[in-house]
Amino acid sequence: MAQKSLDNPNQPSRLRALLARSREYAPVWTLLALFLFFSVYSDSFLTMENMGNILNQVSLLAIMGTGITFVLLTAQIDLSVSYMATFAGVVAAYYTAAHLPQPWPIFAALLAAAILGWINGVGTSRLGIPSFMVTLAMSLIASGLSLYLTRGRILFDLPPIANTLGSGRVFGLKWLVIVAALTLLAGHLVLKYTRFGRYVYMTGANPKAADLAGVNTKGIITAVMVIAAVTAGMAGIVGIGRLGSATPTAFDGMLIDAIGAVVLGGTSLFGGIGGIPQTIVGLLILGVLRNGLDQISVDIYMKTLITGIILLVALVFNILFAGKKEG
Predict the structure, then answer these.
(1) Each residue's pLDDT tens digit, 148-183
(2) Mean pLDDT, 10 residues at a time, over the chain (327 residues)?
(3) Which residues of 3-23 are buried (b: 16+ CB within 10 A; e: fewer)?
(4) 177 and 170 Cβ atoms separated by less than 8 Å
């Protein structure tokens, strides 16, 4: 045994590297396994039409998930994004019904979301309130504002650009998918090729070291909260165009799916690990899973249970592996 260890001095480090690489690609293998399983057991799954359906189904989550990726990379959480989306959609519809000239209702909606996101950021970074708590409170505020503006009614007067982006097509491809792809691309470019993106990773990986290196970590946390709010607002505006109306609870149920998709892809809840490519994988896992369960004979009451179990397993792996830092 001793001779074997002397012959392979780098074996433990190689084993750790192999395990790390296996964990890194686990979401990809999960996606491929789900894709193969549903392709075999469903004749309608592997069709161009159904692939388009999957992209349409995850597009709103993709827009919202871009901002959530920024937040999780700084080791924070935002529980208000789905309510921000609802609020932004309501604001855009409310000011359209009030005959505010276009495209000002869109700008008003995004500005309103950005202000609430800024409050989230200030509460977390400057006042020291845990992001879990401040964004939980903000979810109630955004929900309350949506109810106040609509008085519980459905608003049907929508900005024309929302209708176009939510339901329109160009060259046979839905604008919704294009907006999602552009949002993901912009997020990836910022995180990978800009100083701000490097600071986001540094803030999440080791905030004390980032502070010592001159990074304004408080400003970074505030900025990512604003980014998450604005992308949620974009999702809300596009979403009302897809639905054809704005309601005070339109997107409230998207929170778990949006955060779950980012985590499924491998972005760490502890910050500093992950990115937009991982988010894309997570979105596809969730989309393929939801769509595939609709294609095969699964008890309708079991679908949510199965999705929840897979999400729980992903969270366990995230906490056990991705969150660990080399010491």
Answers:
(1) 999 999 999 999 999 999 999 998 889 999 999 999
(2) 50 60 76 91 89 94 97 96 97 96 96 98 96 96 96 94 94 92 98 97 95 95 98 97 94 90 89 94 92 82 81 71 47
(3) eeeeeeeeeeeeeeeeeeeeb
(4) no
Distance CA 250, CA 125 (A): 30
* Cβ atoms 123, 129 nearer than 8 A: yes
Distance CA 198, CA 190 (A): 9
**Structure token pair of residue 17:** 């590297």
Determine contact, residues 63/237, Cβ cutoff 8 Å. Answer: no
- Cα–Cα distance for residue pair 38/261, rounded to 1 Å: 19
Q: Indicate the pTM of the whole model.
A: 0.89
List the domain boundaries for the chain: 57-251
Q: For CA atoms 315, 317, 322, 325, give the dihedral sign.
A: positive
Tokens describing residue 232: 């949620």
C-beta neighbour count of 170 within 10 angstroms: 10
Burial bucket for residue 238 (CB in 10 Å: 0-12, 13-18, 19+) = buried
Q: Which residue has the tokens 């004390």?
A: 208
Name the residue among 292, 290, 299 with its Cα closest to residue 41.
Answer: 292
DSSP letters for 199-260: HHHHHHH-HHHHHHTT--HHHHHHHHHHHHHHHHHHHHHHHHHHHTSB-TTTTGGGHHHHHH
